[in-house]
Each structure stands twice: as C-alpha cells, then as structure tokens.
Specification:
The chain is 62% helix and 4% strand. It is mainly alpha-helical. Strands 1-2 form a two-stranded antiparallel ribbon.
Length: 91
C-alpha cells in the first residue's frame, strides 16, 4: 500500500469513523494491487456510506482520493452490482 499520500478525511469525524473510511481506502488499494473479495469490499463500502451518505460528498472525496493515489474507487464499486461475495474484484 502506498504511504506517500494522505487520505481525504473530515476533521469532524470520530476516531472510529476515520478508521472505517481509512479501511475503505485500504480496501480500494488492495483491490488494485492484488484483488479483493467482493464481500469484504462491499462491507468496507457500506461502512464508508454510513459515514458519507451524500453522493455529492462521496464523489468529492473519491476525486480527492483519486488525485492523491491514482486509484479510482468507482471502478471497484461498479463491479459489486454483478459480483458474488466470494468473487475477487480488480479493476
């Protein structure tokens, strides 16, 4: 995982919320680097959506994350629609 950039986070979030969002970003990285189980990725994304329910805020954060990391979360999320929990997803 790339440690050369910082994750887009909100300073108003609790420590637990920050950890959930960071877990989602890490799941994206794993998806790009190795592939990730769809079930695990969906769980991380659902936790992320509890903290960032707004689609516009999600898009803003994804854009910041993509700019910093080069990874596009949407490409993995799109695969969840047709994936089984045991499938490995990778862009």
């Amino acid at each position: 995982m790339n440690e050369e950039y910082s994750y887009p986070l909100d300073s108003d979030w609790t420590t637990e919320e920050i950890l959930h969002v960071m877990s989602f970003y890490q799941a994206v990285e794993i998806g790009y680097e190795e592939g990730v189980l769809a079930g695990k990725f969906e769980e991380a994304y659902n936790d992320f959506k509890e903290i960032v329910p707004s689609k516009s805020e999600e898009k803003k954060m994804f854009k910041e994350y993509e700019k910093a990391s080069g990874y596009v979360p949407y490409l993995l999320i799109k695969q969840l629609k047709t994936a089984e929990a045991a499938d490995i997803i990778k862009p």
